[in-house]
Amino acid sequence: MTETAADPGWRISGLAGRRQDVIDRLRPGVAADPIPTRLSWLLTGAVAVLAALLRWPRLGQPADLVFDEVYYAKDAWALVTTGVEVEVDLGTLTRAGDERVLAESASFVVHPPLGKWLIGVGELLVGITPTGWRVTVAVLGVLAVILLARIARRLTGSTVLGTLAGLLLAVDGLAIVMSRTALLDGILMVALLAAFGCLLCDRDWTRSRLAEQLGAGAEPDRVAIGWRPWLWGAGALLGCALATKWSAVWFILVLAVMWLLWEAGALRLLGVRAPFARALMTSGGWGVAALGVVPGAVYLLSWSGWFLTDRGYGRADAVGPVEVLMAWLTYQRQALTFHSGLTADHSYQAGAWLWPLLLRPTAFAYDGAAVGCGTGECVTEVIALANPILWWLAIAAVVWQAWRWLADRDWRSGAVLSGVLAGWVPWLFFPARTTFAFYTIVVLPFLILALVLTAGSLLGTPGDPPRRRQLGAGAVGVVVVACLIATWFFFPVWTSLPMPRDEWGWRMWLPSWI
């Protein structure tokens, strides 16, 4: 939305007499938050500290490569030492000094480089150790808590609900495990969450500008938005997500539609006829540039190491710009073929239809002969299992928010559903592909937002009867306490803490978790 044209199709209907109401509705809800901004940041900092305390201690345990770290830790080290993925031998002990980069042996990798570049930064700073290849995701895991707390505050206009969202992400098991394991999905989640936050800020930015101009007496067909930094920031972050894993493409498509609907909503509020068509005409070009061209440019830039060296897979024989570009496109096609044909059986694979029920979480590491728990048999495990109380309640909250969106057209419910749609529904169309439940880490923040929005409905408004608000607060309090107890109970199997075998068995609530 840049400027509404003065042609007859842009005639405004019924704005006279309701200008102030339109201005009030355009202003961001967060502006009415009664808690001062400084205090809200202190509360955000508190949940971030809690998140760090649950993620950072014993980061080097398990003291070996776990699950797909066997790929990403090696690719990351190759990238930061040679600029491109080549074969790497970390040795049998995976200790500093044991690494060996086979610079002349190109490695065929099927994920873009950016996430591995970030993992490699940790390896450069800390060393080729378990802590080294996990430190980046550990820091980003705490950043995700901060982002979600601020996003929820802006979405709901409430510091209390924003802090609650950050707290729930801080204590969730899937978030904890993915913050302690050098996989790409945790990095992907942070990039997507940050992009969503930028789009939310863009929504508030544009509507604030509209409110200011209407308040100054401007006519609706003469308002202009101008520069939109948050929109361009969202595009860059979506590009970072795409440069980490290709599954980000679904978020790009869904979030672009969500943004366009927000644009149309602002025009509808102004009284513009055919608001969606007009939003497409006036904002579509900017949307394509910011949410299409920019992500593509960032993705291409992430492959700079492959273009600037001759060591990458399929790169050595390419001479000249055209041949190099064609070789890169061939590489992309080969990676796509790999992904579309990945149907190998895995003991912990889980189809997307199983994800909402939490039926088959992924075990990243297990040691049935561990020591350190006293007498008897000791067990350690790292299982990417969400906090089950939080997860199952959040799934129910998504169903409620879907009803809210259909019945009341609450844009906040639609925003939450967009993340669930982009992160889960596309996988339902690939039932034969080998998939894992930890892919849902990108959906988790939106599930928590659904739960927080539902909690806000339970808490009510200042105009509700005191008894009703007390009951709502009590219900929310019970849920929070239950989630905290579940975190305490499951924490050992999220962080590889030694425990007696029978105590480990207590935590395997479903046979399919073993």
Can you tell me about this structure?
This protein is mainly α. It is built from 18 helices and 5 strands. The strands form 2 sheets. A 3-stranded antiparallel sheet has the order 3-4-5. Strand 3 and strand 4 form a beta hairpin. Helix 2 runs parallel beside helix 6 and helix 8 runs antiparallel to helix 9. The protein starts with 18 loop residues before the first helix and ends in an 8-residue tail after the last helix.
Average pLDDT figure = 90
* Number of continuous helical runs: 18
Approximate shape: globular
Radius of gyration (Å): 25 Å
**How does the helix and strand content classify structurally?**
mainly alpha
Distance linking N and C termini: 52 Å
Unreliable segments of 5+ consecutive residues = 2-13
Write the element-wise H/E pattern from the N-terminal end onward: HHHEEHHHHHHHHHHEEHHHHEH
Strand order of the largest sheet: 3-4-5
Beta-strand content estimate: 5-15%
Total beta-strand segments: 5
Q: Percent helix among the residues? A: 55-70%
Taking the sheet with the most strands, its summary is: 3 strands, antiparallel
Which helices and strands appear, and what pairs or packs with what?
Layout: H1 19-26, H2 37-55, H3 69-82, E1 86-89, E2 100-106, H4 114-126, H5 130-156, H6 159-170, H7 173-178, H8 184-215, H9 229-242, H10 248-270, H11 275-302, H12 304-308, H13 320-340, E3 362-370, E4 378-384, H14 388-408, H15 411-424, H16 444-459, H17 466-494, E5 499-500, H18 501-506
Antiparallel strand pairs: 1-2, 3-4, 4-5
How would you summarize what this structure contains?
The chain has 514 residues and is mainly alpha-helical. Helix content is 60%, strand content 6%.
